[in-house]
Design brief:
Layout (H helix, E strand, L loop, with lengths): L19 H15 L3 E7 L5 E6 L13 E5 L6 E4 L12 H10 L3 E7 L5 E9 L5 E9 L6 E6 L4 E4 L35 H9 L7 H6 L7 H10 L13 H19 L9 H53 L2 H13 L10 E5 L6 E5 L6 H45 L3 H13 L15 H14 L4 E5 L5 E5 L2 H10 L5 E5 L7 E4 L7 H13 L9 E7 L3 E3 L8 E3 L3 E5 L3 H10 L6
Antiparallel strand pairs: 1-2, 2-3, 3-4, 5-6, 6-7, 7-8, 8-9, 10-11, 12-13, 13-15, 14-15, 14-16, 16-19, 17-18
Helix pairs in contact: 1-7, 7-9, 7-10, 8-9, 10-12
Length: 600
Amino acid sequence: MTEFLKPVDFDLLPRAVMDYSTLTVIGRLASEKLIDARLRRVTGTRDGSIIFAFDRFSDDGDKDHYFDAWLFSADPKLFRVHPWPDVMPGKSVASHLLEVISHHLTGAKVTAVDVTKFERILNLHFTKREYTGEESTYTFIAELMGKHSNMILIDSDSIILASHKPVHSYQSRFREIRAGKDYTRPPRQDRIEPREFIPTEWSDFLGSAEMDIDIDQHIAGTFMGMSRVWAMTICLLAGIKPGTKVTELLLDDSEKLRQTLALTTGMVTTGVPLSDESPDEFVRRVTADFLERADDIAVEKARQGISKIIGKRRKKLRALEKGLTRDLDKAAKAEKYKKRADLLLANQYRITPGMNELEIDDWETGEKVVLEIDPSINPPLQSEMLYDRYRKLKRTLEVATERLAGVVAEDEELTRLEDKLARAEHLSEINDVRELCILHGLISPPDVKAKRGPKAHRKRQVQKQALTGAISSRRYRSNDGFLIMAGLNDRANDALRRSSNPEDIWLHTRNIPGSHVYIITRGKAVPETTIREAAMVAAWHSKARDGSHVPVDYTKAKYVTPIAGARAGKVTFRRERTIRVNPDEKRIEMMGLMAGDVDK
């Protein structure tokens, strides 16, 4: 460090990025730790990353196992290379690249690790003794370039063996990345290499800046391998605040920037961290930051997936609401058909064959009205047809009114799911919301797959997993608008218990096997009619479906406790009351219709 350099609080800088300054430190450490190590195992992760596990033989007796495994990711949002600090995943996600790497590199020795100058490209060189006794050489290339990031394995003749993302000629006119093709480096950036400039050159550089551009932005956009973080670090080390306009720089500041750029470039190219940390400390910190950001990205990706599902259901509700409103408008004319049928029936003696209309007195208003008549149909049959139309419209009015109330209530439930989703900060919380979406029927439970074995054994496995595997539930809506949830297996019963609020109502048939049923109260008082309808649901989803006067216990959810050590869904409860009901299939079918169960 030169004497004019200022101390920097690196916590004020943005989070670590995989730029050239970061990659050179990681590459230097990988070279120190991995040369002469042998690749023991490769594992694929769900996000497409690959973890290399090595056997190292060092002088310290392998006391530090932190650098025994390394992660490589070509994720366009978080491309990176860093040590893997955790245990190796138990299950590997297969891919073509992973299979090729495993075939060619398992047991291979690392001979060199290098970073392409001023490029975000790290190369791992391997040598392996084949079964024939000959030695083969391979290079694993991690190109960390945003959306163009890739992982490529080539042989000694620079022939591509496999890649993470194949690139065809119609996708890129610069280079083709496919098995069997010659590997070529990415085209050079339209930038210049950072170096030590003479004062006149530096003055020309500053003079070429656009009006009102920040100095760190101008530096980052001019030099190869440069990131905004590296440019901001240069400014801070020179005692200049990032965000300062180029036109505001003093002559002395300009000179400090010139010297600091040359100094940091020398540090970066030799793999020295720009912070006051050792390479080990720097890589550990950067690794922790990348892993935290990977978790954040995974959470956001899961959040967006569930949000899309909720939005899709809300769109269907809007269309359903529009259709129900049209039905209600039509059903509002039901009384007109009844009145017309009454008038036609009362005055049929006045109708003669071939008559098209009849003027009569309206007994309600006393006014003259003209009654239209179909001469091809006798009057009593016309009256009966009008009465049928009246009854259908009245039924439509009843169903549409109840269904519309259910649509409004479900829209409120979707809003609560969205609120819970927005507050979720960890994958476990996102998974809780996902579980709720399964319970609400928004997401289909995973398919149940039987294990291998004789046919009878597979059938038993399917039956067993259907009872305890994927969550399965039914939704109902009471006439008062309350959502009623019934679990159809142990996992669903347990999920309902965990997702319920303390004031929700739990129901179960008394001493009779059956489903756990919950009334979602939303903090409102539950009327007796809703409790009775929920009890009918509990009786319907039990061994007493065909019985009468079925006893059903109910209590608040806060008084239901899981039995320690028992399988999921087994609970004890207290402060219960008992109600007797007769399961009514038609009423339960209507409650399911009101909850939208048939539309999902």
